[in-house]
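WARN no homologs supplied; continuing
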Amino acid sequence: MTDQGGTHNAISGGIFFSAVIQGRDITVQLPREITPALSGLPAATPAFTGRQADLDVLLGALAPRPAGTGPPGVSASRTVAVTAVGGLAGVGKTELAVQAAHTVLANGWFPGGVLFADLFGYDEVRRLEPAQALEGFLRALGIPGEHIPPQAQDRARLYASVLAAYAEQGQGVLVVADNVYASEQAEPLLPTDGINAALVTSRDTLGLLNARLLDLDVLTPEAAACMLDRTLRVARPGDSRVTDCPGDAAAIARTCGGLPLALRIIAALLAEDPARPLAAMAADLRDERTRLDEISYANTGVRAAFDLSYQRLDPGHARLFRLLTVNPGPDISTQTAAALTGHDQAVTRRELEALARAHLIEHGSGYGRWRMHDLVRLYADQHGRSNAQADARDEAYIRLLNHYLDTTIAASAHLDPAVADPATREFNEREQALAWLDAEYPNLTSVTYAAASRGHLAVARDLPRAMWHFLSWRRHFNDWITLATIASNAADRLGDPRGEAVARASLAAALHGARRFEEAITAWQHAAQIFRDTGDRNGEAGALSNLGLALQGVARFEEAITACQEAAQIFRDTGDRHREGMALSNLGSALQQAARFEEAITACQEAAQILRDTGDRHSEAMALNNLGATLVQMELFQEAFTACLGAGEIFQDTGDWHGAGEALSNLGIALREMGRFEEAITACQYAALFFRETHDEYNEGIALANLEEAQQATRQA
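OK structure emitted
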């Protein structure tokens, strides 16, 4: 039998029931290739950009193997039969697959052609079931309608036979199943013969599809601006608004979050109105409350695209999706998400993984961290606000704040020498605590700002205080100034004098670290006065001790000595031996700079012994380094070498590379004066390196000057 489509079936020894073919011997004569009209392959856009690396991955999977490397008797085969492209709605999955399909056709890799079907997986009204898609493919393959079985399983068997026949005749076919919602929707459409191949696109990661997975990310800012320009020029070839106003174009690309769908919509709006400046468009997109409404053209918009993914979530996943926006920071850990929802961490992890498979959230900087695209975040937040009561959103926010504050206190205990048993507070090791603080630092700063603006003043007061030792350790001085100011204002609004004193002390320490000594002096004096007024003698002494350091920064050495002596005496009176040692260390530094060297040596040695006895190795190293600097001034270079070497070893053991730089800088001077020039050069080089890595340009300059002197001494030797 021959039909007008050119398919000939010769059947022998078989039984024919309606459109079902059963037979012992079936010969199917196929058309030479699938015609474009039947394949359904859309045209590729000329504005395609920023995806070359992803396109190369697809083409690498689709390229035929060299002859002789495939199965015996088969002229050509492919390494990967199926590649599944996953990603957020509007990220450009379909366009990437279409570009790859057109490229392989042009290369002649699939002589039989391309079968393309949009399965509308996320649209319950238009969704194609596998049986419907198989019917369309079979017709495109030249099978007459009357020969297509009514049952899905029979269609799948016939489809596999036809694809195998194409493969045997060297007419490999590429199948593109677009917009698939689950593995079972795509599986009956996928070839398994090693010659034919398939591309699948989905908003979900189809991990059970036995396919190579490729997850698309958004475009880079540069690629996003380029796409905006190219798309606009396709519509209006002479339109140069993007190249004329690159700053406005970058702002648009940024507010679109590099999402191709959003960029195409904005380009359509701009093309529709050639007089509209890019600055006006950027201004219209600036307001987060209306941004999703602005990114809409006719019936197309990012909100509608996100709706299709959101509507598929079960209630628990949808609640988590909405609550994630309660976190004001850039990402969230599984642990924090569990605290936010009030659920078990393992349950929360599985829910987060489900949202990631749906590409409504993304994997963050490491395992167990998650983030949202900016536009998805706006979308989720709008749903979260409208479901605030059902989701218990306010209660979730309180849990989030308490989690961040409590965990910060536990982690920072490992950096506070006054805490004797930090391992009992959740983190077993110092490195683990530091890693948590480093990872959560952007969230902690965001939470502080949000707590202050939303009236959670106790958290705004206490969280910067809990971060004190971390901010000092990592030398985040500019951020610290801002956070401490927020804490001080919150304490003032709460009517909490002691809280204000602590915040002022924190601000003073940050100003000192930023070398803003005059401001630090004022802040320390203010803090000391509040502590004195409230009867907190130890607080007053701590402020005085640090005031002494700030006074040294402006060369007011005698005042510095007086402040440190008063602090040491108060600590001695209250029996705080550890903090007495720290005050004596500061006193030793002030005495050294006032050229009262013998007194300085006595103070530093006493400080080092006290701090050693109280188990504060890091502060002991500071005292030893002050001792070494004093001994250098006295030209006792061998003794200075011993003190500085000991300080440097402790600093390195405790991971304080800035402190190590200070010790090595003094060590380099001692070595130079001892005539050990090569060792001096090495010490100064490392000192400069450590200061550079800790962003201390002032001390880096001093270390480089010492290095130059050591090198000059070597040349003169």
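The two ends are 104 Å apart (CA to CA).
OK
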